[in-house]
């Protein structure tokens, strides 16, 4: 089984649904060469896992972008995911960074969701204030507002992996078993970070819910696919204009365009810049 996987499941007798995410190589690709401090890695990894849960549950194809913007040492976390479960992410932070909860590191701020659905003219956006101490609590609050269903998130992230368990109480749960949601919450709360990151989804569910009927659906692979897009870079530089781009070239010796979400850098020398502006525009027919 792939180390980068999302596994949906249903507790049939209780009307409780959920999912398990386990990331290995994909998470390592996302943070490669970024040298994020440990607290930043932890926040970003947990946010990646949560974004996967929410994206996979979309009933329409589209792209989900979550931003956590704060006034604290960590000023920005961005995670972007589409219906292929293609994951991209970045973080911005200052020098005065100590360990602490998400709320301590982010300070006062807001959670911004941009939802770009196929066929829509413009992305739909939602903004809510940050509520809760950790990434899990922040997104549980968001889900309580957006879906109005009780939800729980159990998250973990390290330099080598990120993982999580998502639970959501469906409307018929109390009629199925009045104590079911409470029982499942207590069982799930026994999970450790090591179990989340290292156990396969099937093994994790068997460990947590040995007495429950768990229906497991087909797993989905998570990817980190960020091919070069020189056409986009050239179009952006043309929009700036030759004079401004050549001024950067003169000052720095090269024009460097950084795509932080894709963790990719584009570098152009004098010949590369000249090729952009000296090329004849395409003829329109």
From TrEMBL:
One of its GO terms (cellular component) is cytoplasm. The keyword Metal-binding does not apply. Keywords: Chaperone, Cytoplasm, Disulfide bond, Redox-active center, Zinc. One of its GO terms (biological process) is protein refolding. It holds the Pfam family HSP33. GO terms for molecular function: protein folding chaperone; unfolded protein binding. The keyword Aminoacyl-tRNA synthetase does not apply. It comes from the Bacteria. This is Molecular chaperone Hsp33.
């Amino acid at each position: 089984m792939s180390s980068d996987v999302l596994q949906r499941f249903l507790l049939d007798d209780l009307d409780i649904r959920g999912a398990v995410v386990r990331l290995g190589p994909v998470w390592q690709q996302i943070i490669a060469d970024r040298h994020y401090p440990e607290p930043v890695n932890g926040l970003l990894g947990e946010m990646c896992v949560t974004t996967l849960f929410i994206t996979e549950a979309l009933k329409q194809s589209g792209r989900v972008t979550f931003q956590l913007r704060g006034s604290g040492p960590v000023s920005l976390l961005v995670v972007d995911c589409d219906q292929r479960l293609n994951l991209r992410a970045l973080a911005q932070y200052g020098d005065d960074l100590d360990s602490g909860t998400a709320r301590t590191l982010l300070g006062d701020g807001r959670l911004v969701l941009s939802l770009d659905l196929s066929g829509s003219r413009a992305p739909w956006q939602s903004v809510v204030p940050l509520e809760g101490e950790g990434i899990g609590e922040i997104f549980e609050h968001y889900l309580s507002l957006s879906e109005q269903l009780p939800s729980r998130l159990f998250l973990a992230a390290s330099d080598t992996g990120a993982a999580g368990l998502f639970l959501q109480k469906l409307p018929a749960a109390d009629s199925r078993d009045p104590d079911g949601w409470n029982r499942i919450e207590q069982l799930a709360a026994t999970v450790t970070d090591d179990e989340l990151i290292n156990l396969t989804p099937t093994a994790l569910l068997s460990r947590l819910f040995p007495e429950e009927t768990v229906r497991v659906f087909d797993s989905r692979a998570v990817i980190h696919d960020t091919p070069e897009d020189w056409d986009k870079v050239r179009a952006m530089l043309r929009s700036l204009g030759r004079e401004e781009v050549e001024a950067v070239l003169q000052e720095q010796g090269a024009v460097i365009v950084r795509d932080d979400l894709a963790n990719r850098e584009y570098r152009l020398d004098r010949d590369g810049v000249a090729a952009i502006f000296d090329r004849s525009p395409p003829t329109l027919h």
